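Following up on my earlier thread - several people asked me to post the actual chain instead of describing it. Fair enough. Here it is, all 191 residues.
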Amino acid sequence: LSGYDRKMSAQRFDSETGHVMDTVSGQVRAADYILHAGVGLFNTSAGVERGQWNAFVDALDPTAFNPGIQSVGFIAAVDRAGKGAYLRRARAGSPGYAIEPRGDRPEYFPILYLAPQRTLGRRLVGHDVGTEPALRSALGRSAADDVPAASDIIYLTAAEPGAPREPGLFLVRALFRRQPGPSGMHAGRGR
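Reply from S.P.:
Thanks for posting it. Predicted structure:
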């Protein structure tokens, strides 16, 4: 290539790269607005039930303006001492609810609500994201800095057995209750 052709190729590359960066940045901002709205929902109520969460996410319709969003969820922060009470409350709305993987840990970060619940979503409810280093790191950063944080790339469980696992990420925003509600459930590491 001539010097002129290289210069033009570099300019096109820079332009395309800038466009991609702007698009991704806008999608992350849109996803954060959704998470921020979820924080607002929890901060205006003593407790949010599964049906309320589902209606809230349905009204937002996040996939309409950001097709990269698979689901919007609520992750609880539960310590070992509170696990039994947490499971009783969670099972009141979902009798088969369990924290996975099973085991005794000082703290748990299970997905309590996830909407819309496609096949993959049904399999993730109850999953302790604290057992995934990339997700636990994002939870910690969000709580420490009170900002949204993205996980590193993770490979999501396949929606159907035998299907390939898809790369993705979690964007999380810690919820810090202004006044603890009777539910005692919080998102991220917020307590």
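The helical segments are 3-43, 50-60, 62-65, 83-93, 119-124, 133-145. That should answer part of your original question.
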